[in-house]
Design goal:
about 300 residues; alpha/beta; four-stranded mixed β-sheet
């Protein structure tokens, strides 16, 4: 029986992923100086405006605007004309109490040394998944889509392809037969570029310098549909064309369309947030079960 599964991925300069990177960079800065930092950081970006909001409880006060500038410049954007604002406050005392002392500890049924002394600050649904169709124990469409955008970003950063800009995305559809990847059905790549860039040359370079190495695991055949910038010109992109928001690329961050998602985002959250730590542990368990041949 044939089925088709699709996954997408985005470059570091895509507005949603840019917001994820900013949120996680703020988290990293806090944890580097205070490993007990409690961070729930959200970022909104649109039309030369970036707003950081959320709860930060830490002995370290992050230089939020400096962090934003570094992330923007690392992703290939100019930071000078970006207006920045931050709306940050401390974690709710009620949530903090729940995290500091678990229900069992408050009831006196466990000790601090038991490992059950801390609680979680929220409820949630966390899903872990693994499969043996790739060495990464991930679904084939997810692996291929991620490889394409990594090659695209590397080509921009190194100058291997000139005239391309930070924003971009890829989508891959794989045909499965009897639940195994059989062939590559469709590949779509959208890449922001300078207005002087020849679209014909861009398509040729992406085919040869990005897709050829990225798709080695499942190369295209004569019937594979490859679409590069199918909408045509893609000069206006990034924060000038789109609004970015933390946590809006959940399927990109996980397993694509093959697997359900509980809805909790990862970026900008320390490990007391089960949206992140619970999902990581669920993946760890699934991966080890598949690697051991138990599933």
């Amino acid at each position: 029986m044939k089925r088709f599964y699709t996954a997408e991925s985005v470059t570091e300069g895509h507005p949603d992923k840019l917001c994820d990177l900013i949120a996680d960079s703020i988290l990293d800065a806090c944890l580097k100086e205070d490993e007990n930092s409690r961070v729930a950081c959200e970022v909104l970006a649109t039309k030369r405006n970036i707003i950081v909001a959320g709860e930060i409880t830490s002995r370290f006060e992050p230089q939020v605007f400096e962090i934003i500038k570094k992330v923007l410049e690392s992703a290939g954007y100019e930071a000078e004309e970006i207006h920045m604002d931050a709306l940050i406050h401390k974690q709710s005392p009620d949530i903090a109490e729940a995290v500091e002392r678990s229900r069992e500890r408050r009831a006196g049924t466990v000790s601090v040394q038991s490992g059950l002394a801390s609680g979680a600050g929220d409820q949630g649904i966390m899903i872990g998944y693994a499969c043996d169709e790739t060495p990464q124990l991930m679904p084939m469409p997810v692996v291929l889509a991620n490889r394409i955008v990594r090659e695209l970003s590397a080509s921009r950063r190194s100058g291997y392809i000139t005239g391309i800009l930070p924003d971009g995305k890829a989508q891959v559809t794989v045909e499965y037969e009897d639940d195994r990847p059989a062939r590559l059905d469709t590949v779509i790549v959208s890449c922001q570029h300078e207005k002087e860039k020849s679209l014909r040359k861009l398509e040729h370079e992406i085919r040869e310098k990005v897709l050829r190495p990225a798709l080695r695991m499942l190369p295209p055949d004569e019937d594979t549909k490859i679409l590069i910038n199918p909408s045509g010109r893609f000069v206006c992109g990034g924060l000038d064309a789109d609004t970015g928001l933390t946590g809006r690329k959940l399927m990109v961050d996980t397993y694509g369309s093959l697997v359900p998602h509980g809805g909790g985002a990862f970026s900008g959250k320390d490990c007391s947030k089960v949206d992140r730590s619970g999902a990581y542990m669920a993946r760890y368990i699934a991966k080890n079960m598949v690697a051991a041949g138990l599933a």
